[in-house]
Amino acid sequence: MNKIDEIVFELDIRPISASRPRVFKNGGVSHSETYQKFAKDVPTEIENLFSEEEIELMRQKLRNDDINIGYKIHQDLIFRCNNEDFWDVPMVVKPDIDNVIKAVFDQVYNYFGLDDKRIFSVESIKKYGSNDKIVSWIEVFEIPKYVSKRKTSKKTKKEPTLEELEKELEKLMRGVDNE
């Protein structure tokens, strides 16, 4: 497994939870207003932070059709708090980290064209800080393509037991005596 690239970036945006979408009686589905705002703000924040060329370069680094690649992701999900004694302290209250990770994956990483199925490692830390922020390190690795071992069609014959050999010998002896 060879590391072929690394992308690091910070977005000054509050990480939010991707709670379950609401389903209406008429069959419609909608996310919360907070999630919808996050979904609109992420592309704007990225486009304000990076030039079009930088965004395209990041997308190219994350997509490589010539080799099999995988991603190792580390992310700090930072929530603003006023009490500086708590900055860098892990946040162990709501929102649940798995729901925040889901929102970041769906909005931030999908914006860059990162393929979720190629992620093999994720480390996320939810903590307090001076400002709302999402900090990401994405390491890109060349992964050997999986090739399964072929199953042989030959059945292995089990070795006969001593008892089975004696019975077989008896049958053969009876056949010789009858002739």
Automatic annotation (TrEMBL):
Entries under InterPro entries matching the protein: Endonuclease_RusA-like, RusA-like_sf
MF GO annotations: magnesium ion binding
GO BP of this protein: DNA recombination; DNA repair
UniProt superkingdom: Bacteria
UniProt source species: Acinetobacter baumannii EGD-HP18
Protein name, per record: Uncharacterized protein
